[in-house]
Design a protein that fits this description.
With 124 residues, the protein is mainly alpha-helical. It has 8 helices and no strands.
Length: 124
């Protein structure tokens, strides 16, 4: 198991240094356009493609959700495969009262999803 504190700081650094176009493109690749649209809180999945291409910029609230999702993904990537992380994002999570991390992020409950991700990385 990776040092959780170090892994958490590194995920934060990567999220801060990465453009929203790169973040959106990465999430679209690993999670799929519809799932990214759902967690960003937008109805049109095509918006995700436009953000990734740099044609448009997401609104501030959507960008915040995308950055949180990316940071969580990077943290989980220290211990798990992309396939497992995708399943973690869409599955009912006992740490989140059996809600999916995608919906928790969509609702803006960022701290809860980060706590759940850290618990997962720690083996909890």
């Amino acid at each position: 198991m990776a040092d959780l504190s170090l892994a958490s700081r590194e995920a934060h650094r990567q999220t801060t240094e990465t453009s929203i176009e790169q973040i959106t493109g990465y999430l679209e690749e690993v999670l799929g356009r519809k799932l990214v649209a759902a967690l960003a809180g937008v109805a049109d999945p095509k918006a995700v493609g436009r953000w990734a291409a740099g044609e448009r910029s997401p609104r501030a609230a959507a960008e915040e959700r995308l950055r949180v999702a990316y940071q969580v993904f990077r943290l989980l990537l220290t211990e798990e495969s992309k396939h497992t992380i995708r399943a973690w994002f869409i599955g009912l999570n006992p740490q989140l009262n059996d809600e999916s991390p995608v919906m928790v992020i969509r609702e803006g409950r960022f701290q809860e999803v980060m706590v759940a991700a850290k618990a997962y990385v720690s083996g909890g």
